[in-house]
Every structure is written in C-alpha cells, then in structure tokens.
Write a structure and sequence with these properties.
Blueprint: E1 3-4, H1 7-27, E2 33-39, H2 43-59, E3 62-68, H3 74-86, E4 90-95, H4 105-111, H5 123-130, H6 139-150, E5 159-163, H7 170-179, E6 183-187, H8 194-198, E7 203-206, E8 223-227, E9 231-232, E10 238-239, H9 244-247, E11 251-254, H10 261-278
Parallel strand pairs: 1-11, 2-3, 2-4, 5-6, 5-7, 7-8, 8-11
Antiparallel strand pairs: 9-10
Bound molecules: the ligand Nc1nc2c(c(=O)[nH]1)N[C@@H](CN(C=O)c1ccc(C(=O)N[C@@H](CCC(=O)O)C(=O)O)cc1)CN2.
C-alpha cells in the first residue's frame, strides 16, 4: 500500500526542533526577525504570508510585516530592502512572489543581501548550492529533500525525473537531488515522450503547473511521487499537478495536496532564518 507522506507532520517536527534551537540562541542573547514583504493583495499570497508570520511566532522569532499597495514602485521597494539589509535585528528578508508586473522580480531578488536571502533565490545562493558551498537553500526543494529523508526514502542511485525547470523549484530541485547522488533528468514543456520518460522514474517530482496533469499512465509501479503543484478550483478546493486518486494506488509513497510539499516550504524558511541567526552563512 502506498505511504502517504505527511508534510504537516514532518514540518511540525522541523518547527519543533527549531523552536528548541531558537530558545537556546535566545539564552545566549542571539535574536532575529524575519522581514516579510507583500506587494498587492493577491489572496493566495496573503495566506502564505500569514502562515509565515504564524510560523515565526511558533518557533519564537520576530516578524516585521510590510503590506504594500499594488502601486508601490520598484524604487520604493528597493529602498525598503536597502534599509532592511542594514538592520542588525533582521535575520532574513523575503519578498512574497509573484510581485506586480511593473516590478522587476530579478532586480528585487538581487537587491536582498545574500546574508539575509532566506528564500535562497539570490544568484549567489544559487551559485553556492550549485557547487556545494554554504548558502541558503531554496525552501521548496530543500523541503522535498527533508520529506524524502525523514520518510526513509533512499535517494542515492535512484533515477529522479523532475518535471519543471523554474528557478525557484525545478532547477534547484534537480541540483539538490544530484547532490544526494540521484541520477537526475529534468523534463519540461518541450520534452518529447514525457510519458515514457516519467515511467522510468523511481522518484517523480512534478512541478508542471497544470492541475491533475499526471495520471497513472505516467507512473512506474512502486515509484515515489512528489507533487509540487497547487491549484484551487471553483469550489475553493485545492489539488496538485498529480491526479492523486488515480496515481496513489500505483506508488510506494506519495505527497498529497494540500498537506504535502506546501507546509515544508514554510518549515525550511524557518530553518533558513535560524541558520541566519546562527550566523553560519
Ligand atoms: N518569496 C517566496 N514566494 C513564493 C514562494 C517562496 O518560497 N518564497 N513559494 C510559493 C508560495 N509559497 C510560499 O511562499 C507557499 C505555497 C504553499 C504553501 C502551503 O503551505 N500550502 C498548503 C495549502 C495552503 C492553502 O490553503 O492555500 C498545502 O499545500 O498544504 C506554503 C507556501 C510562491 N511564492
């Protein structure tokens, strides 16, 4: 029977470990706050930002919230980031993505000091990860590695197919799996014979951005399936990129949506904040 990988339980374990560590750091006089910036009022972003602030409170670190109007200019946002880069009480800075179209996302990411880049999106963080140097890891891919390891799923030597090549999930995911000694294939919208390729995967990681796109015909019997997608239907019900009901019986382990990868993104963000407080980066 397929094992359901419970991201809620594993993310809680991680946050509980971090809570203890934060208490120890505080006892040594080390404190820090996460600056959370949201531009505009996209409802999904508001949910994620709120959950991030709640997670800060849970593990015992501060959060400084910036809820900026949609019309905020790029220059105004850059000024705020510049100030936050200099503040000693701020251990991490995150700008919730996506930002409104008139703001250049890359410029914003690059303005955040790599020392406070707890999202792990800065080119310096990505470069460090690529060559195995210390640096903040992108939260969703790092969360998936934790999900696999804490579920005792062997990665080394396995064929992992990652569908999706975004800078925040697909590419770093492939690199982290490679770092764990998996044999990695990246598939994307132009990949030929996607189904045949996916059927070769021992571990299939899906970040394709299409609701319920992956059915059982893409999955090798007994494979591990990780669903990064998150979509809301007309009845406000969430689903992933994987058709869970059809695929689950054919897997050895699978993540649900909700309650799989999503909560891990926030747990790993907290992990990066604590790493920043430790001053290890
Ligand atoms: N600055 C960033 N922006 C975005 C990131 C990111 O890592 N940093 N990732 C995504 C959104 N995201 C975090 O911000 C995120 C997405 C989903 C979840 C989550 O816990 N999902 C729950 C369901 C929650 C719901 O009711 O909608 C689940 O899957 O169980 C957390 C964080 C894009 N932007």
């Amino acid at each position: 029977m397929a094992k359901r990988i419970d991201g809620k339980v594993i993310s809680k374990q991680i946050k509980d470990e971090l809570k203890e560590e934060v208490a120890q750091l505080k006892a040594k006089g080390i404190e820090g706050s996460l600056a959370v910036i949201q531009v505009g009022n996209d409802p999904a972003s508001s949910v994620y930002v709120n959950n991030k602030k709640k997670a800060c409170e849970y593990i015992g670190i501060g959060s400084i919230s910036y809820e900026l109007p949609e019309e905020t200019t790029e220059a105004e946002l850059l000024d705020i980031i510049e100030d936050l880069n200099k503040r000693e009480d701020v251990c991490g800075i995150l700008v919730q993505l996506p930002v409104p179209k008139h703001i250049d996302e890359d410029k914003i990411i690059q303005a955040i000091s790599p020392k406070k880049d707890v999202d792990g999106f800065h080119p310096q963080s990505v470069g460090a990860m690529t060559i195995g140097e210390p640096g903040f890891l992108s939260c969703t891919p790092a969360g998936i590695i934790q999900l696999l390891k804490r579920s005792n799923i062997e990665i080394e030597g396995k064929h992992c197919v990652v569908i999706g090549r975004s800078n925040i999930v697909g590419k770093p995911m492939a690199l982290l799996m490679l770092r764990e000694n998996a044999t990695v294939t990246i598939a994307h919208s132009k990949t030929k014979n996607l189904k045949e390729l996916c059927k070769q995967a021992d571990i299939l990681i899906v970040a394709i951005g299409k609701p319920k796109f992956i059915d059982e015909s893409y999955v090798k019997e007994g494979a591990v399936v990780i669903d990064v997608g998150i979509h809301r239907n007309e009845e406000n019900k969430l689903c992933g990129d994987v058709d869970f009901e059809k695929v689950e019986p054919h897997t050895s382990a699978i993540t649900p949506v909700p309650g799989g990868v999503g909560p891990m993104t926030i747990a790993m963000l907290m992990n990066n904040c604590v790493e920043s407080m430790r001053g290890q980066k």
